[in-house]
Design a protein that fits this description.
Layout lengths: L2 H11 L3 H8 L31 H12 L2 E6 L2 E6 L2 H10 L19 H5 L8 H14 L2 H6 L1 H20 L4 E2 H18 L8 H17 L4 H5 L4 H31 L9 H10 L9 H32 L1 H15 L14 H13 L5 E5 L4 E3 L2 E3 L4 E5 H4 L47 H18 E5 L25 E6 L9
The structure holds protoporphyrin IX containing FE.
């Protein structure tokens, strides 16, 4: 039984008289205003649930080819609008940014049992707390100054990453690149956020990575509460224990690290994010009062938001490079001509590597780690000429927008050259609006985009500069299958298992 069928079965098996009344009241009518939104035919109760499969972004993209750039969808009790074109997304992100400045808050947040769900940054409503933290991100936590100060952390982590790969190459050991990259991004973010190198801290390492895995796995199930409407407590029965254990585990770990920081406040030469947040936490004159839970859940959001997204984006990029040796060699040649053959590529080189930048952009266009983002309108408004009542939930299909044939030439082709200045005559440059939306846009855009891009560029440049990559599956070589796995995060279905072969060893004299 597929996952969708399972939920469908679950949903139907809990039919109650209340639901039948709702059914006969014809709940499935799309919200209508001055104009009626297009919408696929709906089934009683489940609405359009049967039309979306395990590949949510693809299902929505397929529906948009029939129902247009804005249409209505009802998933069980979850009413939503789906947007799949750059001009309508532009209206949300730019023209009406303030109206759509929040992500919808999942109905099922377990009340007081899971305070993290209520205090998180991603779910925070547009209000004093979110604005305060956003300002803090821009001015301090993820500011260019703080990123410069934490550069040494990333350099150490990248060097360690390359050394480990050199070891694997020496032993002719096939590596799971995704797992290695998760370790790299996790260690770097944990060190920047709270000076905790996961893999060196014994069980802390595995615990954080385990928590992250579970968070990614069950995070998307929270929205099931909205889908099930009056039966949302079913999700609590199914996953409540898992959610609570996850929450308690994360909280215990972060609380321990927080206490260590409190004991050594002011002693660290290079402040980490927890030090900065602790100062704000203790400052009675701060613009907004943040609680201990806010502080911990913010740090966890940063680690959740940055670890998997970054690692997955790099996996897609390396897979494309393995399948496109011409791009790989062009990139290596660019790195060689700028960096030379005596040292490892550094963050400061990236500005002089336009082809590397184009390769990264092209990967994020084709494989946005969050293919669909959400918004909720804070007040009733009009979108693309349709009435939107207050609290309307909007799915913005970034994946579909960045593969729109109206905007991009050969949209499904991996062709980094489209981003080079010499190729400025492409369709996307004539639309006027923002079309590369991998980090979202507007007030709720990703605050970690600058850091994400720095890390992605440097990791890829180092992997290309130092190694040839032989893809191996069941002991054989060949092309990487670029099929995506099921789920709300975009990831490669098969693990990217490769044999690294040393091309250049930057530590040759010291190894
Ligand atoms: C390749 C890397 C990354 C990608 C593609 C990515 C993408 C995104 C997207 C699409 C959103 C939703 C934006 C919207 O709704 O408009 C988002 C939000 C967010 N991201 Fe990232 N992200 C990446 C890396 C990071 C990193 C490194 C961090 C932390 C340092 C981070 C922290 C966050 C946070 C906290 C939010 C919530 C923002 C809010 O609700 O105001 N992300 N990200």
């Amino acid at each position: 039984m597929s996952e969708t069928q399972y939920y469908l079965f679950l949903f139907l098996s809990f039919l109650s008289p209340v639901l039948l009344i709702l059914f006969f009241n014809n709940l499935s009518k799309p919200k209508s205003g001055s104009r009626r939104l297009p919408s696929p035919p709906a089934l009683p109760l489940i609405g359009h649930l049967h039309l979306v499969g395990g590949f949510f972004h693809k299902s929505l993209q397929n529906l948009s080819t029939q129902y247009g750039s804005i249409f209505y969808l009802r998933l069980g009790f979850y009413e939503s609008i789906v947007v799949s074109s750059a001009p309508v997304a532009h209206e949300i992100f730019k023209t009406q940014d303030i109206v759509f400045a929040q992500h919808p808050f999942p109905k099922l947040c377990f009340g007081d049992e899971l305070p993290y769900a209520k205090c998180g940054f991603f779910n925070a409503p547009y209000g004093d707390y979110w604005r305060f933290m956003k300002k803090l991100c821009i001015s301090q936590l993820l500011s260019p100054g703080q990123l410069e100060r934490s550069r040494v952390v990333r350099e150490e982590e990248f060097a360690r990453f390359v050394r480990e790969l050199l070891e694997s190459a020496k032993k002719k050991e096939v590596v799971n690149l995704g797992a290695e990259l998760i370790k790299l991004t996790n260690n770097t973010l944990c060190t920047m956020a709270m000076s905790t190198r996961c893999s060196e801290e014994g069980d802390k390492a595995d615990r954080i990575r385990e928590y992250l895995k579970t968070t990614y796995e069950i995070g998307s199930k929270i929205v099931l509460g909205d889908v099930l409407g009056p039966l949302s407590r079913v999700v609590l029965w199914l996953y409540g224990k898992q959610f609570t254990e996850l929450h308690l585990g994360i909280d215990g770990l972060l609380e321990g690290i927080l206490k260590e920081h409190e004991e050594h406040i002011g002693e660290r030469e290079n402040e980490d994010l927890m030090d900065i947040l602790l100062k704000v936490f203790r400052d009675d004159k701060a613009e907004a009062k943040i609680s201990r839970i806010h502080l911990k859940s913010f740090l966890y959001d940063i680690i959740v938001g940055g670890t998997g997204t970054l690692a997955e984006a790099i996996v897609w990029l390396m897979a494309e490079l393995i399948n496109h040796p011409n791009v790989f060699h062009k990139l290596r040649e660019e790195i060689r001509s700028v960096v030379g053959s005596t040292r490892l590529v550094e963050e400061s080189d990236v500005a002089n590597l336009p082809y590397l930048q184009a390769v990264v952009k092209e990967t994020l266009r084709l494989y946005p780690p969050f293919p669909v983002t959400t918004r909720q309108c804070r007040q009733s408004c009009q979108l693309a000429g349709f009435d939107m009542p207050q609290k309307t939930v909007v799915f913005i299909n970034l994946y579909a927008i960045m593969r729109d044939p109206e905007v991009w030439d050969n949209p499904n082709e991996f062709w980094p050259e489209r981003f080079l200045v010499s190729n400025k005559e492409h369709k996307q440059d004539r639309t006027g609006g923002e079309t590369l939306l991998s980090f979202g846009a507007g007030r709720r855009a990703c605050p970690g985009s600058r850091l994400g891009l720095i890390m992605m560029h440097t990791a890829v440049a180092a992997m290309v500069q130092c190694f040839d990559w032989k893809f191996r599956v069941d002991g054989h070589s060949g092309k990487v299958n670029m099929e995506a796995g099921k789920g709300v995060f975009m990831h490669l279905a098969q693990p990217l298992t490769c044999l690294p072969v040393v091309h250049f060893n930057p530590f040759a004299s010291s190894i």
